[in-house]
Request: fold
Amino acid sequence: MQRDAAKPKKSEKNINVEKRENPMSLSLDVSAKIYPVNRYLELYSRSLEEPEKFWEEQARELDWFKSWDKVLEWNTPFAKWFVGGRINACYNALDRHLKSWRKNKAALIWEGEPGERRVLTYHDLYREANRFADALLRLGVKTGDRVGIYMPLIPELPISMLAASRIGATFTVVFSGFSSGALADRLNDAEAKVLITADGGYRRGRIVNLKENADKALASCPTVEHVVVYRRTGHSVPFKEGRDIWWDDIVKDSRKYVEPVSVESNHPLYILYTSGTTGKPKGVVHSTGGYLVYVSATQKWVFDVRDEDVYWCTADIGWVTGHSYVVYGPFLNGVTTVMYEGALDYPNPGRWWEIVERYGVTILYTTPTALRTLIKYGDEYPKKYDLSSLRLLGTVGEPINPAAWEWYFNVVGGGRCPIVDTWWQTETGGILISPAPRLGLVPLKPGSATYPLPTIMADVYDEKGRPAPSMTRGYLVIKNPWPGMLQTLFKDPQRYQQVYWSRFEGVYYTGDYAMKDEEGYFWLLGRADEVLKVAGHRLGTIELEDALVSHQAVAEAAVVGRPDAVKGEVIVVFATLRQGYSPSPQLAQELREHVRRVIGPIATPEEIHFVHMLPKTRSGKIMRRVIKAVASQAEIGDITTLEDEASVEEVKKAIETLRAGMA
Ligand code: PRX
Reply:
């Protein structure tokens, strides 16, 4: 019975799940030629025997000012890694390479959307990070203070992160696509002392007015004392005397060298806000020592980075992928990284492939949504460019459907390049489940992230916390601590405990559905909670509903995700209106604009339906599953039994009302 109960309902299937019930095994000749196949599982089993020893060896690859006294202090669910060890993130990412031939190696190859190019060597980055670290010191930033960063994808963004960590300040990057309201919430929660921003950035040929957004946010951010503004676009922006200062003006008087602050391994390197199941974003706190050890090791194992590589992770640094695998992972490993500021199809859909050809990119790491967008434009774009430099491909952020996987493999990778499907989360700090070519590539199956990385004890549990049988959907859990894991939620350890460690006793609850096949491969099947993945971006339904009801016309709102062939999922809104307001296309448009203003363009609803009532159980809980099924136009089937508090009549009526709303 349990097995049936845990199986995906027909209505919940999406394009990605379809083929998964019968996963095809694609044993790639190519993998076998390049990497020793099947060596991996042996190494993995060995890593489970003495995980602390295993991580201790990895930690020795970094430079510590003082070695740790203890590898792990584990007071479930609070982990401290490399306790007593002293380290600096910026030192490990930059100073360390100055002692080697990498000093003048390209660290960052940057391309702006309008076409400018900049190459910064490790020595260049070191100089800039030092100068900016001194600027922060002169603005009064001290070890432990928080620094907000709201910037376009330009070199000064990683420079700001490196500079902050050099002086032991904890940075919090806010994605530049977020609105002023979202920025204010994050700066206030973090109690940021300084904000680093730019006049603007470029997106699809247009200027995004970051300074203007920042000014709006700062009207309600009393902790922010100073704002450093980098001149990116050069358009005129308002300046507040005494508070605002241009980047160039402050660094011109900077010292050339700032001593890196030696922090204890568990000093917080950064806070990154992410969406959860309530309206308030969670401030995920990452450590310094454990986090760096984890991203450095996983960067090597999964992407097999070598000195001759040109590595391009297309993520924005506003998300965790950018923190771990655009900035810290590559720099710790002395890799050459490509960074592109703008839209993937600007000025035409060949832009990415042109970049791969121009810089001879060897490793490409991107999202399924990006791939599906590019597939739509047709094969002629990738075929126009020489992509033969590529040798390894990666995906992240959402399940990849077999069709996108095969296109990536054949059209982009020319059938030569293994694909690493990497599963992880903001909270995990780094990749947990993925092929690891450096350690031995296992045969790939399109749509499966394969096996957990060394020491990671991942499993799939049923509702009751028992291991689910193979080929049965359940909840993905991690049963032991790892160095990259979040330390806590900022200022809210109770919520940390409750969200991640209370669903099942003593194990980390990921919030994801997954299943294991007969060979133990993991198949990720989407979120099991009220979190949506829209074009790979993580959004909470409650957060979206809060934004909607903050509009004067809306009485109640229910937000659900509907499967989408390109974005994975899109936002569908059902709303009831207050007295005096009536449904109209204009009002729907106004609500769309309103959500964009409150959260940002990534949260734009795809569909808005006005209804007379939302389906609720007798106790007043919104019946989300009914709404979701209606939005997806799926069979409602036996959904009534899922909501035992709701009568069949209630559910039927709710469906009729919703369907009428959609008509
Ligand atoms: O649902 C999983 C999905 O993305 C969620 C984490 O989102 P975020 O914290 O924004 O981090 C994204 C980048 C690491 C997960 O709970 N997810 C991530 N990677 C995969 C994935 N789903 C399927 N396959 C993946 N490879």
